[in-house]
Fold this sequence. Notes:
The protein is mainly β. It has nine helices and 51 strands. It is 5% helix and 49% strand. The relative contact order is 0.12.
Amino acid sequence: MVAKAQNRTISGTVTDQTDGSPLIGVNVTDNLKSDVTTTNNKGSFSISVPANAKSLSFSYIGYEAKNINLTQSNTINITLGSSSSQLNEVVVVSVGYGTLNKKEVSSAITHVSGKDLLTVSANNPLMSLQGKVPGLTITNTASADPNSSPGIQLRGVSSRSAGLGPLYVINGVPGGNIDNINQNDIESIDVLKGGAASAIYGTRGSNGVIIITTKKGTSQSQMFYDGFTSFDYLNNQLENLSAEEFIANRVQNKQGQDYGAKTDWLKEVTNAPAFAHKHTVQFSGGSAKTNYFASADYRKADGVDLRASKREYGARLNINHTTDNGLFVATLTAAPRMMNTSNADQGNFNNALTLNPTYPIFNNAGKYNFINTGFFSNNPVENANLIKSQSEIKELDLNGSLKMNILPNLNTMVTISQISRSSKNLNFSPSTLSSVVNSNKVTQTNFASQEQQENDQKNIEWTGNYNLDLGKNHFKLLGGYSYSLYNYKQVYSQNYDFPFDTYLWNNLGSGLYNGGAAGQGQSAVSSTQNGSTLIAFFGRLNYDFNNRYIVTASLRREGSSKFGANNKWGNFPAVSAAWRISEETFFKDKLPWMNELKIRADYGVTGNQDFGNYLSLLLYGGAGYFPFNGQYYQVYGPSSNVNPFLSWEKSENFNVGIDFSLLKGRLSGSIDYYTRKNKDLLGDYNVSVPPNTQATTFTNVGSMKNSGIEVALSGEVIKSPDFEYNINLAFSYNQNKFISFSNALYNGGTFQDVAGLPAPGSPGNIQRIQEGYSIGEFYTLKSAGVNDQGALLVYKKDGSIVPANQANNDDKQFVGNGLPKFIASLGNTFRYKQFDLGIFFRGTFGYKIFNTSAFYLGTPSSQTDANVLKSAYDSSSKYSLLKSTSTTSIASDYFLENGSFLKIDNVSLGYRQKLNIKYLKSIRVYSAARNLYTFTKYTGGDPEKVEVNGLTPGVNTSLNYYPSTLQLILGLQVNF
């Protein structure tokens, strides 16, 4: 009672520094932590504090915290300003199995906050990261398909036969489902680019590591809603001849027939604008000891083709609990997702491009017309409406951890997780297809199939952390054990000739074709199961002296069942160091405007085990049939060679860089130079038979090298209470060199021809991977113009010029490269009072694209009775000169174009209004536009629709075409 009498009550209001509106839910406590309160809907608070309390602290998410010293006055009125990248802001970076203050990081890691992600309506959350991280290329050649996935590559191509994508670590669990993340749930993304950082993940770190941290609960109760609609409109698409133009240019020149109709096939197979909407609701709250974060989302999206659509439901629950004595901390995360998809026919737009526009969609009887002319001889409108391809996908990410704080500086934690994904793939083709009816088929009329795929990953990890401070010497020690079990199951069945098309895939047993003597036998059903195990022991030591000299060393010893009997285990060491020069006295005195300057260097060995299971073992498979007593029996025999020395691909990574911040944080950034040598590349190599049973062995041979420069800059150009302007620049340069195909045991030759073009014709391969050259080198005939007869002229090996049909493969030469040299982006963000505006530019430069559409469809000599692009008869286009059929389907650099482009990639505008309402804290309305305009000299549509990741950059080896779109988004965000 005495103590209570000594208390006094402090009251006041907390308002926004920008507009003076009251802030609701601000945490208020005294320095003795004797009591905690929050401001009400008017921004007012009242708190009882002991007489010996010295100050009050005010904290609110999204605002800078304040400490106010207590005086004799019992009234305190304050304002809080929005958080920004102040010099003293603590940025927490995930480094793998832990976090560090950004100032303590000594390796190449890029940190992106969730609030800095682009506003996009995409199937994959990483599309919102596009252009934000130097060295990370994210491409999607069919971004308007709601079921498409982007290609992701870090610091260049790294393998011939193993996976090229990075390892995803979601909330500390390696290998999570990347499409099971709602963008609104992302707290931050950390991209581990340096080998010293990613080496802690051993055989999965060669292609970099992307760590995604989702939002967690706090003691502050919150509810948030975000909903948007999006519309996709075709832009920068390919244009073919109209019916009138086809008659004038093709029919009149006896290169096509007039069937009397006027059909815009591209328009007929297009669903534009494609509509999508998404809704997210988030809840968080609890206490300092127990808190939760829960979210649920729903998305429905259509593609710009007639068939593609996606409907998905997802949720995420995160619970954290700390015991009263602080000894134990438990967490539980569950994230289920269910998706129903209708899959796009990626070739349907190309079919429409090539069809004679005078051919009608329907015949006189009102049925779909049977089309047996042109490139593909089918009716794309009929295919899109009648042929079905669907998937039912279920994903579940579960993980729980128990942490024991043994001492204030010693803890241990066990994490158990399961990552599962199952998909049922369903396909149906009806008996009413015009191709079936007009061929008078009596068997193999309608068709249906079902396929069930299941991927399951179970993990258990045990880590321990020990921290020790000895004066100015600071130590952090990590040790751990990891066990992962992977399993894959698949079963497939199909049948033909069902009595009713209405069965779809739901009654496979009613089909007749597989049941009789003329049936498919074993090909009607199939199934498989395979798995692998990964075990690792790892440790890391972080040391710094007086926050100036930083050294980190780590070692991971890892074994995999995928490897050969003699190479099950490998060691992955790493070391990095940094010197914060700005902390030196001599530096502070002479350059006080330089707030942070850190020089760092790192070296690490990483691996790549992203290849199939059992490839080191002697496998058996079907080897024909053997007659015995009038019956034929399946014979089994060896189908692969044993390789006890099969191992992981190894990468040796070296990185040097600087981090800096000056003018009180107004300008900051980093510059990195890296080299990465990939050794022991996996591939199939020719071997002698005998002693081997097969002519090829999958083994480790070959090497390649990537090197480059990355720059990231961030600047606060203007900063005032009412107006702010910030810029962010990202730039990367990469150079690739393939070093060798061979070693002392295996001879793989000096080159490999890749990027084979399909029929019609026999164009062959147009790129070559050769020792001493870069990935992506185009290797074709070199053009010398066009003669008066419209035939392509090329150079022979001796320098003479001949028509292309008189040259041969020996006359081919290196004519350009499809691998971009530079990738850059520039982000601009503005804030004026409650308005915010973002303008994001992105570009890729210094590479060539083979114009596949022009090669097949862009010349007057294209296939008879097929439609062509307008460029074929445009006198300003060089392709209009190629009139001779004698050189059609002969590839040369005549079809290489400059692929460089600059995009106005993302523009977003928002207005946020704080509300003095009991049930609403604030609302924000926003709009965004994606892919507004592309500046380029490339004539084949959007150059970004041609893949630049992988082993064949700069060329589309398929005739499939999915148009580019401009995406408009309208959204609403509400804080309750």
